Amino acid sequence: MDPVEDTLRRLREAFNAGRTRPAEFRVEQLKGLSRFLQDNRQLLQDALAQDLHKSAFESEVSEIVISQGEVDLALRNLQAWMKDESVSKNLATQLDSAFIRKEPYGLVLIIAPWNYPVNLMLVPLVGAIAAGNCVVLKPSEISKNTEKVLVEVLPRYLDQSCFAVVPGGPQETGKLLEHKFDYIFFTGSPHVGKIVMTAAAKHLTPVTLELGGKNPCYVDDNCDPQTVANRVAFFRYFNTGQTCVAPDYILCSPEMQERLLPALQSAITRFYGDDPQSSPNLGRIINQKHFKRLQGLLGCGRVAIGGQSDESDRYIAPTVLVDVQETEPVMQEEIFGPILPLVTVRSLDEAIDFINRREKPLALYAFSNCSQVVREVLARTSSGGFCGNDGFMHMTLASLPFGGVGASGIGRYHGKFSFDTFSHQRACLLRSPGMEKINDIRYPPYSPRNLRL
Ligand code: NAD
User: Fold this and answer.
1) How far apart (Å, rounded) are the C-alpha atoms in residues 264 and 231?
2) Among the atoms of ligand 1, which is closest to the Cα of residue 290?
3) Considering the entire predicted model, what is its pTM?
4) Are residues 314 and 323 in contact, defined by beta-carbon separation less than 8 angstroms?
């Protein structure tokens, strides 16, 4: 038998035997995940440094601490999350028990991308374990050093009859997707998201799709340019811009653009020094293919800051572009790198119209000293998430759902939302076998008497 088929059969048998259902089992696995993160902190940091030149700080805050926080939250709340939820009743069911049971789906597939390869694999896994599922994990083959740790080390911390890590690229994932899963959780590009959803449709498997896109960032004239520049540059160049929720482009007036440019230059120099290539705090582009793609984007508009690149090092300087045309590739595709175009607009209305003419983004940012302006952008647009006066801070709150809308995705997770995503909400009514007299009124032969029901 094909080894993947064998793994899936084994996991399904374990699920059908009820192995993952008890709360104690789920707690054990979550504790295993916690030990994996603690024991292998350095190993993970080294792998992330090899794959993405990620600094220890960025690995710590955006991969390890976030994953650990989700495990801790699930451990603290598991009993409460698992509890049946009582619901209100009507007259006919007054004596019965009506509740929602949070039931695991069964065998779940989680597919992750390469940009936050630990976080985007383990955070969904926490929800899937907490909800009582068996799980197949498919890390990205592109962040290959991290993939190796996830394939070789992670399974030692989990019950291998219920959890498996399957390595591979598009071809292997395509094969995996031919099998029937009970839920598929995918994080990656909209293009592959469609492939996943098409494969899932063949089995009527429900999906969560966490996708990407272009996240607009509106900057009002009344802002302090240096504050905006610090915040935008930090979130644009974090992980070398390879972040699904990074501000993708700025919309501002020509006057604000003139004030922002020196402020952005000052923020970049402050963060990465005069020679960002030698900074330990700036990462590298994941591979040659993405490097070439980004190098091509440097030719759009006019380079106002940065613009240098070094193929041998997969280095692209933190860059700001101006005078870009809407029709140029940098304004057509998700940038996913350290390049920030500034697009000028004459008014707030024009900015909102620019945003609404495009696909709904994963995140939207608005900077203004006037809270009315921020609220107006919020009220007149749509996006997966929104943050006023900062970058992707909204996604650091596990109390907020994280996910896209429209082209940026389907579904949500983080914290309790993850548990709910991986749980089927089963509608349950337990009736009494007695009191049959009361039911007489509903039975045929019908007569005006039935209408009293
Ligand atoms: P990708 O879609 O190329 O790959 C994601 C996963 O799908 C990988 O595990 C890969 O092996 C697999 N895959 C690739 N091609 C496939 C195919 N033809 N058939 C089946 N499986 C295939 O995405 P990526 O390049 O790894 O990541 C970048 C994208 O992910 C960006 O668009 C980014 O915005 C998005 N992203 C979204 C989020 C989010 O939370 N919404 C987070 C991170 C990244």
Assistant:
1) 10
2) 25
3) 0.96
4) no
Cβ atoms of 235 and 246 within 8 Å: the answer is yes
Catalytic site positions: 210, 244
**Alpha helix (H) residue ranges in 252-287:** 254-272
Which residue blocks in 338-397 are alpha helix, DSSP H? 348-356, 371-380
HSE of 104 in the Cβ direction (CA atoms, 13 Å)? 24
Is ipTM strictly over 0.95? Answer: yes
Q: How far is the CA of 127 from the centre of ligand 1 (A)?
A: 20
Closest atom, ligand 1, to C-alpha of 193: 2
Burial of 276 (0-12, 13-18, 19+ CB in 10 A): buried
Distance CA 217, CA 28 (A): 43
Determine the straight-line distance between the first and last CA of the chain, rounded to whole angstroms: 58
Cis geometry, peptide bond prior to residue 318 (ω within 30 degrees of 0): no
188-192-193-195 Cα dihedral, nearest 10 degrees: -160
- Cα of 236 vs centre of ligand 1, distance in Å, is 19
The pLDDT tens digits of the residues spanning 145-167 come to 999 999 999 999 999 999 999 99
Q: How far apart are CA 271 and CA 274, in angstroms?
A: 9
